[in-house]
Design goal:
The protein is an alpha+beta fold. Helix content is 20%, strand content 34%.
Length: 1023
């Protein structure tokens, strides 16, 4: 932590050091990588004076503008509000401390001392009161300390105070002129305990004092390094007791680091020479933090330094605007080592820097200018191991590199780039054959064979258009040697080649769309010989191909949309056969596929990503059977049966989250290498220890209808939270609270973005809901009832806090659905019903006899009246029906008579043919008169149909609805049969022979579906 004296001194020394910075030549020595939290991430202000992790796991930061609590996801701000006496008493927070009661204390620059009340998220404040001798001696508080007797000490600008917790009163120690037993200076700048019972006090004048906690005796130390300053700008800025030894580490501003043992008086001073900026800055310390390994982290004007007490070596970490992983500011005011071993460093203006020592788990090799012990270029394309254990890499444009893991040195194999067609500097592939010769495939200069000792090129194989026996292409994507020493070479767009050592000829295998037995594709990415000696080839567009040596043909496995058991993609980048003889296929857009040992069935392993989004560049297998995959999502560790286990990304030290295909190797020592566009990584799988920290889980926010719920009364007068949601075990909400939102956090800061969460609401969710890194959940319109919300979380390496945390939630029903309201309504209704029944009963009893008499009389009258009416109506209906029947028969008879006339006319016409002219003229005149009458008879059927319908309503509609196949003439026959006319009469009306009517009868019976024993007349009566 930084104190007020340090802040004042900063103004003087900043000018000096900035002048020194720009006037001196100095070298950066940023060996550590830092993450950053700034105002852009939610920090209230960039000047961080104090850092603390409390017993619950929250991180706290004191800034120039208030106090900040951090949960890994979000910051919560506590600021000074002049109108609120329970707010933070001052803006600047210079020191923080959590005591043995887990109470959090904050020392402010102008407002005195504050104690944070966790339940209410408010502050109890202690300020100076000139009328109260038991109050704080001054409102400018500088430092805090709790001694071995659990006494709280508060340093101020005007004296040292200790708190009587029972009386909440302070006793104070001051400088008294002329009294050598008092403090030499009242301005307290730092506090610690030298040994149990001896309080060590750092003063603003640069001297020290001790206070015997039992006797109250003060002893001033004012010699040597601790001689009081005449100017007053050389304060003791920080004191830290060594965790394992009986001495303290402290600093006097400008004097560097000091180790001090009061018992034997031994003092060691580690002041750095001022020949360089970082050395000069390391002497102006603001904070000293000792980590779990005993190393000291020193925050200073020059940055953050690390001092090793055993070797007495100091390393520097400074701001470098060219390196985003460096410190983000020149000046570090505060430092802190948390429970996980992370180092937090607060800067003077840019926020917080975080060093995560356990996160850089993977070694990274990158090209460094003028450093021969680094790769010649950062683009690493292919990796191979020779018999001596050296590792070979191909790079662009740095040629081929040979790395000795023991000496950690590199040797380069390069050629003259002035002849680009023959250059080996653009190297894509490297393969070391059994004889030790090295094959190098280039991006455009063909295939070379070199001597591994001299680096001399022995042979060059290049594509010549006119030579059918040369290699098919000059861009080499794959080189592979099978167990029979055959060399196979895959090209960029020109298929696969087999090299004949005797003739030095190449046999080409290229895709022929017309030949299904040709290789699947011409852009070759991977080749592999399995345990049975079968050669497998992966291509960019042709899926997976199998080579049949006896016929020199291929069978290919390609993706089919409607086949769930086929290969996942036609772009195959990587092949690997595991210890169980399963063939693993890495694809682009199809995930990681497995072809079982029988080479019959494909399956896809779950890697936690959508298969369309992931690219598998290389597949390695460790000694335990786990798969390690370089992908476009980083390096993934997977169980061959269960799938995803862990993922490693940039924060773990990877060269990047994307790699190159075939750029992977497991060496003879079990180390794994993966290459990509930013160098290569090296690690041993057994050395990658996972984060063992089980993260505490807390609920950090509670919202109703998207609005934060305050502690105490809400705007509508209700009180839902009586204490902080983080301290609450149960809440009760109303039916009107339609949307409730809970925010939670896993207090593990190794990589909060990779913390994972799962939640479940009892009586609502059937099972745990995995939500990845999402740290909030909303429920809408919960039914009234009791619920329990559970949330659990994992750290960045998938270690879960299975216990998690729970919150009981009660949703109250509306008052009209409550038991008491329903009971009240029920009782009221029952009383009203009983009263009504009584009143009605009495009234009914009075009217009962009267009604019974009236009912009997009226019933008798009604029976007589109804009987008479029914009789009259029946008679009328019978008369009407009888009349209509007679009309219908008359009409039928008239039609029959008219038909007889027609028949007579026909007979007369036949006789006319036999007469002479005079007689014929007379007969024709008679026929004319007869025809006039006959014309009138032509309307008889329409008249008949009209009368028939009045008698037999809906006859035609009903019979047609059931038998639509009946013709109009058949319908007329049906109508005539319905009124019981004989066949002869019907034939006259229809103007056909009686035999024809019989035919109609037969057709009608058939269409009606009548059996031979059924009567047609009886059947038609139903309509």
């Amino acid at each position: 932590m930084v104190n007020e004296a340090g802040v004042l001194a900063l103004g003087v020394y900043r000018i000096f050091l900035l002048l020194f910075l720009y006037g001196s030549a100095f070298g950066q020595n940023n060996t550590l990588k830092f993450d950053h939290l700034t105002v852009a991430n939610g920090l209230s202000q960039g000047s961080v004076y104090a850092i603390l992790q409390d017993s619950r796991g929250f991180m706290w930061f004191g800034t120039r503008f208030g106090l900040n609590r951090y949960d890994g996801n979000e910051f919560k701000h506590f600021n000074h509000d002049p109108k609120n006496p329970q707010s933070l008493p001052g803006y600047r927070v210079l020191a923080l401390l959590e005591d043995h009661h887990s109470a959090l204390w904050a020392a402010t620059g102008t407002g005195g001392l504050a104690r944070y009340e966790r339940d209410t998220e408010t502050f109890t404040n202690f300020r100076h009161d000139s009328t109260d001798p038991g109050s704080l001696s001054n409102d400018l508080t500088t430092c805090l300390y709790e001694d071995s007797n659990q006494t709280l000490w508060v340093g101020t600008k005007q004296g040292l105070n200790h708190l009587d917790r029972d009386k909440l009163k302070f006793d104070s120690y001051f400088h008294i002129d002329g009294d050598s037993t008092s403090l030499s200076d009242s301005h307290i700048s730092a506090l610690s305990e030298l040994s149990p019972g001896i309080l060590l006090i750092g003063l603003n004048n640069g001297s020290l004092a001790t206070l015997d906690l039992q006797s109250g005796k003060i002893t001033n130390i004012q010699t040597g390094v601790f001689r009081p300053s005449r100017t007053g700008f050389r304060p003791i800025t920080c004191i830290t007791r060594d965790q394992q030894n009986d001495f303290v580490w402290l600093s006097r501003f400008g004097y560097g680091l000091v180790k001090y043992n009061l018992k034997n008086g031994i003092l060691n001073r580690y002041k750095q020479p001022t020949s360089s900026y970082n050395s000069a800055g390391a002497n102006f310390l603001y904070s000293i933090t000792q980590d779990q390994q005993g190393k000291l982290w020193l925050g200073s004007v020059g940055g953050l330094s690390v001092f090793d007490p055993e070797t007495e070596q100091l390393s520097f970490n400074e701001f470098n605007d060219q390196n985003p992983g460096s410190l983000n500011d020149h000046i570090v005011l505060s430092s802190f080592n948390d429970k996980q071993g992370l180092i937090w460093a607060g800067s003077e203006s840019k926020g917080i820097n975080i060093y995560k020592p356990n996160q850089i788990r993977i070694e990274l090799f990158r090209h460094e200018a003028d450093n021969a012990s680094s790769p010649s270029a950062n683009n690493i394309y292919s990796i191979a191991e020779d018999e001596g254990g050296d590792i070979w890499f191909t790079t662009i444009p740095g040629g081929t590199n040979r790395f000795n893991p023991s000496t950690r040195t590199f040797r380069y194999y390069q050629t003259d780039d002035s002849k680009p067609n023959w250059s080996m500097n653009y190297a894509l592939q490297v393969m070391i054959e059994k004889s030790g010769l090295v094959w190098i495939g280039t991006a455009a200069a063909g295939l070379s064979q070199i001597d591994p000792v001299s680096g001399e090129r022995l042979k060059l194989y290049y594509n010549y258009v006119l030579d059918p026996y040369c290699i098919s292409g000059s861009t080499i994507n794959a080189i592979y040697e099978t167990r029979d020493s055959t060399i196979w070479v895959g090209t960029q767009n020109n298929g696969l080649n087999r090299y004949d050592r005797k003739t030095e000829h190449f046999t080409r295998f290229q895709n022929d769309p017309e030949n299904p037995s040709s290789i699947g594709g011409d852009r070759i990415y991977a080749t592999l010989e399995d345990h049975a000696g079968v050669l497998w080839i992966g291509s960019a567009e042709g899926g997976l191909s199998r080579f049949h040596a006896e016929t020199e043909s291929f069978s290919s496995f390609k993706h089919t949309v409607d086949d769930e058991n086929c290969i996942g993609s036609n772009c195959v980048l990587a092949l690997h056969e595991d210890g169980q003889n399963n063939l693993w296929i890495g694809t682009s857009g199809g995930g990681l596929n497995k072809l079982d040992s029988d080479r019959q069935t494909f399956s896809t392993l779950d890697l936690g990503f959508d298969n369309l989004d992931i690219i598998i560049d290389c597949i390695l297998e460790d000694d335990h059977g786990y798969l390690w995959l370089s992908t476009n999502k980083g390096v993934i560790k997977a169980d061959p049966e269960q799938g995803f286990l862990n993922r490693y990304t940039l924060i773990d030290g990877l060269q990047g989250n994307e790699f190159y295909y075939s750029s992977g190797l497991k060496d003879s020592q079990g180390y794994m290498y993966f290459g990509g566009p930013n160098g290569f990584n090296r690690f041993h799988p057994d050395s990658l220890s996972n984060n063992p920290h089980i993260p505490p889980v807390v609920i950090t926010k509670f919202k109703i209808n998207y609005a934060d719920v305050p502690i105490g009364k809400m705007k509508d007068g209700r009180t839902i939270l009586t204490r902080s949601i983080s301290e609450t075990k149960n809440i009760t909400v109303g039916y009107q609270d339609k949307i409730i939102t809970l925010t939670y956090a896993a207090l593990d800061f190794s990589d909060p973005r990779r913390n994972r969460y799962a939640y479940k609401l009892d009586n609502f969710d059937e099972d745990w809901i995995q939500v990845g890194s999402n740290y909030s959940v909303s429920y809408t319109s919960l039914e009234p009832g009791d619920y329990r919300f559970h949330v659990k979380a994992s750290n960045n390496d998938g270690l879960w806090n299975e216990a998690g945390i729970a919150l009981d939630i009660t949703v109250l029903p509306p008052f009209w659905e409550t038991r008491w309201f329903r009971l009240l309504v029920s009782v009221t209704l029952m009383l009203m019903i009983m009263l009504y029944i009584q009143l009605r009963f009495k009234r009914l009893e009075r009217e009962k006899s009267k009604l019974q008499k009236l009912v009997k009389e009226r019933t008798k009258e009604l029976k007589i009246e109804i009987a008479e009416r029914q009789k009259v109506e029946t008679e009328k209906m019978e008369l009407k029906i009888d009349h209509m029947k007679r009309e219908l028969v008359c009409k039928s008879m008239l039609a029959t008579e008219n038909q007889d006339k027609v028949n007579g006319l026909i007979r007369q016409l036949k006789e006319i043919q036999k007469l002479d002219n005079n007689e014929m003229r007379k007969r024709f005149n008679g026929i004319v008169r007869f025809s006039k009458n006959l014309f009138k008879a032509g309307h008889d059927w329409d008249e008949f149909e009209k009368w028939f319908t009045k008698v037999h309503t809906d006859f035609f509609e009903k019979i047609l609805s059931e038998h639509p196949e009946l013709s109009q003439r058949e319908l007329r026959v049906c109508a005539l049969i319905r009124i019981n006319l004989m066949t002869k009469d019907i034939s006259n009306l229809m103007k056909v022979e009686p035999k024809t009517i019989e035919i109609y009868r037969h057709r009608i019976r058939h269409k009606l579906g009548l059996a031979s024993d059924e009567n047609l007349n009886h059947y038609l009566v139903r309509y």
